Amino acid sequence: MLTLKQARQLRTVLLGTLGWLVALIIFFPIFWMILTSFKTEIEAFSSPPQLFFMPTLENYIEINSRSSYLTYAWNSVVVSFGSTFIGMLLAVPAAYSMAFFETKRTKSTLLWMLSTKMLPPVGVLVPIYLLFKDFGLLDTRTGLIIIYTLINLPIMVWMIYTYFKEIPKDILEAARLDGATPIQEIVRVLLPISKGGLASTVLLALILSWNEAFWSLNLTASTAAPLTALVASYSSPEGLFWAKLSAVSTLACAPILIFGWLSQKQLVRGLSFGAVK
Amino acid sequence: MSDLKITNLKKSFDNVDIIKGIDLEINDHEFVVFVGPSGCGKSTLLRLIAGLEEVTSGKIELDDVEITDTAPAKRDLAMVFQTYALYPHMTVRKNMSFALDLAGIDKAEVDAKVSDAAKILELDHLLDRKPKALSGGQRQRVAIGRAIVRHPKIFLFDEPLSNLDAALRVQMRLELARLHQDLNATMIYVTHDQVEAMTLADKVVVLNGGHIEQVGSPLELYHHPVNKFVAGFIGTPKMGFLEGVVVSVNEAGVEITVSGGSQFLVPVDGGTLQAGEVITLGVRPEHITVTEPEESAYQGRLTVSEHLGADTYCYVETDSGEPLTVRAPGDFEGRYGKMVGLSFDLQHSHLFDAQGKALPRLAKA
Amino acid sequence: MSISNLQVDKATGAEGSASSVKSQNRQKSRISLAMVSPSVLVLLVWMIVPLAMTIYFSLIRYNLLYPGDEPFVGLENYYYFLTDEGFAAGAFNTLYLVLSVLAISVIFGVLIAVLVDNDFWGRGIVRVLLISPFFIMPTVTALVWKNLLLHPVSGVFAAVWRFFGAQPVDWFAEYPMGAIIMIVSWQWVPFAVLLLMTAMQSLDQEQKDAARLDGAGPLAIFWHITLPHLMRPIAVVVMIETIFLLSVFAEIFTTTGGGPGYATTNLAFLIYTQALLQFDVGMASAGGLVAVIIANIAAFILIRIIGKNLTDKQ
Known about the structure:
heterotrimer; A: 277 residues; mainly alpha; MetI-like fold; 13 helices; B: Rossmann fold; CATH 2.40.50.140; 2 domains; five-stranded antiparallel β-sheet
């Protein structure tokens, strides 16, 4: 029979193997996509699929030579960062006020904000489309920035609210006793302490905006279309396109994947509206 | 000069009265301790003095200038919080200099003040560390240092020792006493621990349910409590209480009888007491002696004996169920369950009327 | 130093100046209101204006191809929408999709989270690999699955099927909804894993130790300690996933376009086709409102059953 120590070691090895197996299976599509991006189109489409081949950068080169990729990428960048920036300008004061000056209406306001995210986008597709048309916002980055700010605002407010609530009240009282004005309290004490939480919020908002695939598909055509739309255009392509699709996709997803990997723990809070920390 | 005068101070939160009318005077250089059970309002009182809570009614004056409504930063008071409230993102040096920086004081002066305070508190080698790299005791000293550098009129301490382990608590208590001597400053200290109150205070303020029960020096409160609450709160182990009834009142004192039939003559001024009225006898452990059962007027059953080395504290079960603690010599051998006699030193006992008020002692004959 | 300050304040009337506690507090509540208002106002407008317009449009006959006359037709659009041949399929598919993905993501989410809670070599990397799909753009996910993986000739699945001697499946032809469910689950299982994995870490090790001393085996510990602890985060996962799964769009848009027929059309896609492909604003608005009502009902039910926990935490 196995000793207790041996049984434990065996258990760890078995669980570890199982864990790795599950992880590799789940990650496989991404791995395959990255792999395919280094194949030629013929190799990419070959049957059976090839695991070993001579890698080539031709797909990446072709993408970069076609200026349209950069346009799409730039659109994604502008829209994500723009909406996140405006979102933070609105969310930080709101969260500050709700965390430190809680009133009887605070809880219901927060819940109401949550409820605006429950609105299915299709429900307002028509009016938004028509409004955008009338205001000349269709196919503009500005239009997308406005929408993204609105849809991410509730998550940002909730997330920052929970971070602010974790700061012990007496640190701020100590600052007040030390002679800090409300502005000084915020700038010299509150913000430095919560900068980790604020950074995670920014990261989450960027990820959500970058990957957003409803409004970006319906409200843009060519000028303001971000990367989500570019990839979607490969759904009715001409000729062999798998390798190019993989290259475009890898480039489009790489930054967000890395963001996500770096901040996974902190994102949980925002993704669950502060319910899971 | 830092004389604090509080007049009829009241504070309520959402229609609940926390502070119900407090009058208090605190003099320059005094070490005043606010002590009382949880919820008595001592922290609230401190925060009202600091300006962290809004006063509902009443007046607070510092050196004859009213500060009831003044902003906390302008009151020239410094506070040491229970959780220390150090700024986690600043070094020790920055933590201590923050207030002075905000006030725009010249850098050289700030550095001088910070190193002075650091020297007094032995923090010199820690100045560039951040709070998370400090031990509990070190953090507390930084919190104190933060207060010292401002040379405030009054130091406010909100239960500063409650987060420290027992040994550290004793050490810090001594350091605080020493600090008070060195700085010769006025200090207001809030605690629920009456040992801290007894050992640190020049003046103790006992609070209960938003009222002041008694103000006085530690020994005054110990030997002459004005009511049952103060008598039971101050002193550890607790004073023992026996309920009884007045038999008669004369110039020698008040004759009482307690359950079990024992009768005692307590040398206090009976005032308007009538026979048959309910009273309570209070005796401290050091004023009770264990004897053989037949040698004393009162008996009880010995239960647990705690041997502390120099003393032994015996817990005695009485007929009426009221527990008594007796201080016996260190080598006392008490068998669990043994019946013993208890002899009371009535000269040092206390008698409380039905409302709990202490009856004044008769002058010694 | 400070005495003079205090005296000056007394002279000018401490009440009015910003240095008094009372007026500072009053100022604070005014400022705090001003700080929340922009966000609230902005969201209010975002909710009310489009929603009001949707309601208005749903009550008139309005087709972008035939502009001009827009008569009020009452509930006619709703009638047409609900009796449209696509509606039954759309409603059914929506329900089918949401429930399937919920079940798959919760079950696998719990199992994987429990698995990964054990310490083994490379656990950090495993976790990173596990949560990756959630960060991939939906359009990328859809096309990578449709082409590189599920393609009946050159896809990886086809190769695996052939390896085992079976005939490859043409997923999008034979099991279109199944394919969509596979794709959407692949994205959301990591979401569940991420949340549940994090929640597992707040599970007190001491509780498990006490249970082991009481004689509990791993299954008993899972059932009596781990699972109850995860009930709250599971509720959160279900709530949030439901909100988003009701509106799945990009995956369908980029792979099947709703077909074949109405096989993969859910409500969101149905309304989209009516709005932006058929340009029937009236009907699409009616549909949109129906979608909002359904979402509200779902949210109401969920909040009733589990939502209390969300705000209790603070």
